[in-house]
Specification:
Helix content: 40-55%
Distance between the termini: 24 Å
Shape: globular
Order of helices and strands: EEEHEHEHHH
Strand content: 15-25%
Structural class: alpha/beta
Length: 167
Amino acid sequence: MAIILGIDPGSRITGYGVIRQQGRQLIYIGSGCIRTQADDLPTRLQRIYAGVTEIITQYRPDSFAIEQVFMAKNADSALKLGQARGVAILAAVNNQLPVFEYAARQVKQSVVGTGAAEKKQVQHMVCSILKLLSHPQADALAIAITHCHFNQNLARIGEPELSLAKR
């Protein structure tokens, strides 16, 4: 049995999803978002760090999965996203959690079956996989689900997990 924390980073809103993996079964534990509600970036980053640390303390996950940075049209937005990811990863590392990252296309492929899936398709499949009636923080939950699928595939071929620290 493992508890996985999935993070969908953002400089203003950072989503999180927590699931438990029991064999091949995935069970929804909780989800939500960290809303920074501050004008200056340093304060927003501090609130993301504190929020992720609080979630880790509350749920005691075994693994931390986060979406990789993608290149947006706006370089400034991409840099802020990278900084938000950085403080979230720092919170995980400071709590001795192994960190895993997945590309958006990889998450869509894992959850829906195609890397070109639409957001509504991801939401629908997250609800289906976790047996939910609504889709709270579907992106963060999809990242956690992807980590479980990735680990199941590694276990099938007899390979150990590779966290960012081991790559």
